[in-house]
Design a protein that fits this description.
The radius of gyration is 36 Å and the shape is elongated. Strands 3-2-1-4-5-10-9-6-7-8 form a ten-stranded mixed sheet, with helices on both faces. α2 packs antiparallel against α9, α4 packs antiparallel against α12 and α4 packs across α13. α21 links the parallel β4 and β5. It folds into three domains: 406 residues, Amino acid/polyamine transporter I, CATH 1.20.1740.10; 105 residues, HUPs (Rossmann fold, 3-Layer(aba) Sandwich); 147 residues, Rossmann fold, CATH 3.40.50.620. By secondary structure, the protein is α/β, with parallel strands linked by helices. The chain is built from 25 helices and ten strands.
């Protein structure tokens, strides 16, 4: 009976493998695969020996750097089931892990079909002519049989599948020995040094792209991470050793082929296994078993690795949970049978060459991501990142760039298609908001970038040209003041910072307060209303001192809050308190906004923003900028700004009119102006109430009241705003005062 397992316990019932059998053997046999037998002679015959060695070194350098990056990641974590997917998901997050893991599973599944087709075709190469023509449908039928047999073996026991690779490795080794023996026995000749491109007129990079899949597959052992005794030790040792052994053999083979007296460049340039069978000792009899073994080993690697990726996806919630179930022997049997079923269905596709390039591209995107993971971990510098193999971030980044170049060389259209597919998966996973319970390297990267930006801001000379409002909004309970936070978001265009702060009267010394829960509730409320703001909870023994202290402490380096915003208070006397606080904040260059929100406007009102320009306290600059920022939002795009001022004489009227029009022209803000004469027996407050009664929003400047005059000034503000719609009182105290540009 199968049972659900956690990622940490996945595969504990199964036998565990060491470095040689669990990592090195499947990795090196996947490297020494089909391309080695069918395309090595073709490469030498087209580009000559020197460029062949260059191709091998270039291709192997990409895989070697990726192996270093994978080894660094593996030595820093306890790698669970899923191999490459597990490492990527734990380094760059579940979204990136899913974007890579789902295509990785499909690649490994389709690879089973590819290898089955390749094995079926190579077996039928020895069909005796005396038996007549090969029956139609033989290749798909034989491929289906191979898929079924490999799936049965893998589903029954990973140990059996891996132990079968020992005789396969021997067969591959024997084929290499008889090749060398045949070349030595037939003598040597001078190799061809120049490129001829006999059967590859497309040129060097075409030959490189055809050869590159020969060096891939070194992650086959990583894919079995959940079945290893000590993955942290076995993965780097087995993977790096496989890459080094594969590269060494790949440097020796072209030298042997190029110096062979039996093999002319014309024979070598013909694609196929003929170059090996012509010169090898005992001919094809010892070459074909190695060829078949290499293909079969690659098929086993895919049919073992694919289900484990699917199992890991299921454990992380990216696939149905039943796919994570294990058999009594510890095998992901359900995932294995589904993988085999998909591979068997793919046999019916027939011609798979077109898909083969797409699969290769997807594998290369995995290499890109593994290198990016290592680079991000190193560059982010999280204290928890302490790998035993430390790869410099620029080396890993170079590996990513190299893999991208190879993707474009192989097939630029398939490259774009693969990136589009993975981007769509990323967006889907992100949209589903899957929860992960582990940290990842992204936090370290963002922190490093934030530090660099803050250091730059600290040394950068501030200027009114770069000024934008960063709001500290005192909200009490966020759900009750959500309109205030929304107004702040409109004002800063989602480019500045908005911090929603709740003050709790209390004392941390003896009160037990659940601040984390309160902060989480605030964040949930902000998020539910689609607002991007930072939540902050401060416990203060005194409200007035607490506000001033929080306002001074809020922010860091060049990102301190420069504008405090509060809503219209409900408590009697609280407005006077805010005015006293405003006077104190003015001394530390903090501007202040007191907003009286009334969103329920009467029908027929104009969507007009009135701004009352006094000119005495230099509040007009900030009010005009805030009004301009407001109308840039979709909700206020049709609103018209009307700058109003009061004149006491005809001369003052003309002077103010000219001054405002000149100012609006200089600051490039689209607004109308209106100068209203001050009639006898009429107060400024009455003119504002009467003129702006039908405005959607009204901006009015504030002054610092004299000590002891706060209550009287509060009554005046209440009288003015009582007859208006939303009223925004503004006190400009920062460096922006009088410097609108």
């Amino acid at each position: 009976m199968a049972e659900q397992v956690s990622p940490e316990s996945a595969g504990q019932a199964a036998p565990k493998f060491g470095t040689f059998l669990g990592v090195f053997t499947p990795s090196v046999l996947t490297i020494l695969g089909l391309v080695m037998y069918l395309r090595f002679g073709w490469v030498v015959g087209n580009v000559g020996l020197p460029l062949t060695l260059v191709i091998v070194l270039l291709a192997s350098s990409v895989t070697f750097v990726t192996a270093l990056s994978a080894s660094a990641l593996a030595t820093n974590m306890s790698v669970g089931v899923g191999g490459e997917y597990y490492m990527v998901a734990r380094s760059l997050g579940l979204e990136v892990g899913g974007a890579i893991g789902i295509p990785l599973y499909l690649c490994r599944t389709l690879s089973v079909t590819f290898y089955a087709y390749g094995l079926a075709e190579s077996i039928l190469w020895i069909w005796p002519p005396a038996w007549g023509e090969i029956p139609s449908g033989s290749i798909p039928l034989l491929s289906a049989v191979i898929v079924i047999l490999t799936t049965i073996v893998a589903g029954k026991s990973a140990a059996v599948a891996l132990k079968l690779q020992i005789p396969i490795m021997i067969a591959v080794g024997v084929s290499l020995v008889v090749l060398a023996a045949g070349i030595f026995s037939h003598g040597f000749t001078a190799p061809e040094l120049s490129a001829s491109y006999r059967s590859a007129p497309q040129g060097f990079w075409y030959v490189f792209a055809v050869f590159f899949p020969a060096v891939t597959g070194f992650t086959a052992g990583i894919g079995l991470s959940g079945d290893l005794k000590h993955p942290r030790h076995s993965i780097p040792r087995g993977t790096l050793l496989a890459v080094v052994v594969g590269t060494t053999i790949y440097l020796i083979i072209p030298i042997l082929l190029a110096f062979s007296a039996t093999l002319s460049p014309e024979i070598l340039a013909v694609p196929g296994v003929q170059a090996w069978t012509v010169v090898a000792l005992f001919g094809a009899w010892l070459v074909y078993p190695g060829l078949w073994g290499a293909i079969l080993s690659s098929a086993f690697g895919s049919v073992l690795g694919g289900p484990r990726v699917l199992q890991a996806l299921a454990v992380d919630g990216l696939a149905p949970a039943f796919l994570a179930r294990l058999s009594k022997t510890g095998q992901p049997v359900v995932a294995t049978w589904i993988t085999g079923g998909i591979a068997l269905a793919a046999v019916g596709l027939g011609e798979l060459n077109a898909i083969a390039q797409f699969v290769t591209i997807l594998f290369l995107t995995l290499y890109v991501t593994i290198n990016l993971c290592a680079a991000a971990e190193t560059w982010g510098g999280d204290p928890s990142y302490r790998p035993r193999i430390n790869t410099p971030w620029y080396i890993s980044l170079t590996g990513s760039l190299g893999a991208i170049v190879v993707m474009l060389l192989i097939n630029p259209f398939a490259c774009v298609a693969a990136l589009v597919l993975e981007s769509l998966i990323y967006l889907y996973v992100q949209h589903r908001s899957f929860q992960q319970h582990w940290g990842d390297a992204r936090a370290g990267v963002w922190l490093a970038l934030a530090r660099i930006a803050l250091l730059r801001l600290r040394t950068h000379r501030s200027s009114p040209r770069n000024w934008r409002p960063h709001f500290l909004v005192f909200v009490g309970r966020a759900e009750k003041r959500i309109g205030l936070v929304r107004l702040a978001s409109w004002f800063n265009q989602n480019r500045g910072l908005v911090t929603a702060c709740r003050l709790i009267d209390g004392n941390l010394s003896w009160e037990d307060l659940n601040l984390e829960q309160a902060r989480a509730e605030m964040d949930d409320s902000l998020r539910a209303n689609g607002l991007v703001a930072f939540g902050e909870i401060d416990v203060v023994p005194d409200f007035e001192i607490g506000v001033i202290t929080a306002a001074q402490a809020n922010g860091i380096a060049g990102l301190q809050s420069n504008t405090v915003m509060v809503g219209w208070p409900q408590k009697a006397g609280r407005l006077a308190t805010w005015l006293r606080i405003m006077r104190a904040l003015s001394k530390v260059k903090k501007s202040m906004i007191i907003a009286r929100l009334k969103w329920a406007h009467e029908p027929g009102q104009l969507k007009r923003i009135d701004l009352w320009w006094g000119g005495l306290e230099q509040n007009g600059d900030l009010m005009l900028l805030l009004a301009h920022l407001l109308v840039l939002n979709t909700e206020w795009r049709d609103a018209q700004i009307l700058v109003r001022s009061i004149a006491r004489s005809k001369e003052e009227h003309e002077q103010q009119q000219a001054s405002l029009e000149r100012l609006l022209s200089e600051v490039r803000i689209n607004a109308r102006t209106e100068i209203i004469p001050l009639a006898e027996n009429t107060s400024v407050a009455d003119i504002i109430r009467e003129s702006s009664a039908d405005a959607a929003m009204v901006f009015i400047g504030l002054k610092d009241p004299e000590p002891g005059q706060e209550d009287a000034y509060a009554e005046r503000l209440d009288y003015i705003s009582a007859g208006l719609n939303t009223t925004v009182f503004v006190r400009n105290a920062g460096e922006f005062a009088g410097k609108l540009v």
